[in-house]
Design brief:
33 strands, 412 residues, five-stranded mixed beta sheet
Length: 412
């Protein structure tokens, strides 16, 4: 290698070693520089939790700032930003109201070792004032806006909000400005129940917005359930218990209200096509015309929009007559082999109904009063409801309450 090349390599190596040595001296051997940060905000530990738990609050000094001078190696300090160093005051030791001079500490970002730098503040203490915490509970009011989709209804009486009230805390003069909490819920075009959390506004007694950062609130948001149900018109129907002499085909009937408007979740109403009012025993109706009040029971998850809770059923019997008999043909069924039956009642009065032509042909011998004793296993004297059968006349049957037979069961 030529002497010229050797000389160039020697100079380059010397320069590299010089740079490395300079960096070493600059960073390790204390070549330090200062850097100033003005108006660094003070963080107060315990102001949002510890003090309120003791019924106290910070009323003065919370906006305190301090000027800082940071000194350290050039490589560290030159790249520091204002947010890399923080001033903290710990209020967890404060237990009384009044003015308190507080010492402070420093904290740095994770990428800076606080032991590598020194920090000097422009003052030695931060003075704070602590006062009693004033609190009051304010009701939450929900303001519903907009119209739901056609064919749906907002069930305002079912609206629910949680919590129902917000606890406000702070200076008495600030908190007492607030008279209510308002939540706005827009239901424009909505076709299903709204269930979500909402932000809210603080209002004064005139309904004006109160904006005050010094007021603390117990909840940042409130949960609102605004039921939006589908509307459906359903027929009201009646079922009939029929028997000879009391067939639906021999009646004319109608309901005072035969339909009803209901509301409910779509899942509750999609398979519901009618509301059954119950079963009417035609044999229990004695007059040719009878009016029966029937209660309307809403299925689970459905709500009555029509307002009426019952309807009147009017029944008229056509081309039927009634005739009374005194019947002594009383026979038991359902006795075991070890039981014997003796009647105490010798005859019962029976009222039959049917077409006039058939009714005229009925005799007492055609009528049987049957006492079912299947469930009577013990000996004794009993009053038993009996069944009335009319043989040979298929359109004639007993009406009214079943006759009662007094009888005695003994063991053989």
């Amino acid at each position: 290698m030529s002497e010229k090349v050797n000389k160039i390599l020697y100079l380059a190596l010397s320069l590299l070693l010089a740079i490395i040595f300079w960096l070493y001296v600059d960073n390790v051997k204390g070549n330090t520089i200062p850097k100033e940060f003005s108006a660094v905000p003070v963080e107060f530990i315990g102001a949002e939790d510890t003090l309120p738990s003791r019924g106290l609050m910070l009323v003065d000094g919370e906006d305190a700032t301090i000027d800082l001078t940071v000194t350290g190696p050039r490589a560290i300090v030159s790249s520091m930003r204002r947010g890399d160093v923080r001033v903290q005051v710990n209020l967890t030791s404060v237990t009384t109201v009044g003015t308190h001079p507080m010492t402070y500490t420093y904290a740095t970002s994770d990428n800076i070792n606080i032991n590598d730098i020194s920090i000097q503040g422009s003052r030695s203490t931060i003075t704070v004032q602590v006062a009693p915490l004033y609190s009051k509970s304010v009701p939450v009011q929900v303001s519903v806006e907009g119209d739901v989709a056609e064919g749906y209804i907002h069930m305002s009486e079912q609206l629910a909000v949680e919590p129902a009230a917000i606890t406000l805390s702070g200076k008495e003069e600030d908190v007492d400005q607030v008279e209510s909490v308002r939540v706005k819920v827009d239901l424009t075009g909505v076709s299903s129940t709204i269930q979500k959390e909402f932000s809210y506004e603080l209002l004064d007694s005139q309904g004006n917005l109160v904006e005050n950062d010094g007021i603390r609130v117990s909840h940042k948001r409130v949960a609102v359930t605004a039921p939006v149900y589908i509307i459906k018109e359903l027929p009201l129907v009646v079922s009939f218990k029929q028997a000879a002499g009391s067939m639906e085909a021999d009646t004319r009937w109608d309901l005072e209200y035969d339909t009803i408007q209901v509301a409910g979740e779509p899942a509750s109403l999609e398979s519901l096509n009618e509301i059954t009012l119950g079963e009417v025993d035609l044999a229990a109706i004695l007059s040719d015309r009878d009016d029966i009040q029937l209660n309307i029971t809403m299925p689970a998850g459905c709500y009555n929009l029509s307002g009426y809770t019952s309807t009147k059923l009017t029944i008229r019997f056509r081309n039927l007559e009634t005739r009374a008999f005194s019947v002594s043909n009383i026979t038991p069924i359902g006795l075991s082999d070890g039981q014997s039956f003796s009647r105490i009642t010798n005859s019962v009065d029976v009222l039959l109904r049917g077409p006039a032509a058939q009714l005229e042909e009925v005799t007492e011998e055609d009528i049987r009063v049957v006492v079912d004793l299947t469930n009577f296993v013990s000996s004794g004297t009993y009053n038993v409801d009996a069944i009335v059968l009319v043989d040979g006349h298929d359109k004639v049957g007993a009406v009214g309450s079943p006759p009662t037979v007094a009888c005695k069961i003994t063991s053989k």
